Structure prediction request, 158 residues.
Amino acid sequence: MCCCGKPTINGTVGYRWNNPDAEPSVYPLNPPNLEQSDSLLFDEPGRCGGLDSHSHHYRVVEQHGTIWLLVRHGGGDERIRLSAPNQLIPITLVHLDPNARYWLLNAIFHAHSAGARDARFHEQERWRKAAIDKRIKVHKRKGTFHVSIEPKIEIMSA
Prediction:
């Protein structure tokens, strides 16, 4: 549990974990790695301030005309494509102060994660129901397999 006492950005003195009486320390910077063709636009280390987000470090990069959000967190690294005209994201983000920019990137990341989690759940549920109904079909074609779900046949009664 974060006990910093006041908003603290990783890499600066003030971090306290689980003990508000402990001496303030520095939460180390741990940014996501850049690829060789990445052009770094924004680098926002983890922080707290209402929420404990010390474990999330965000970077916004441009790679071959595409804007990406890079994230490093306790589960590893992620690269999320930001769908918008190339200059919309950098122009919008440059007008935000670092804290507002960090929390906006945090919201984008968590919305993306929740959407991906929900999509996985619904797809798994679809396959579970198809398995129960014995509607999963496997076809072997020239040494490869094609797996599909047959449509559910609704029987209408008069």
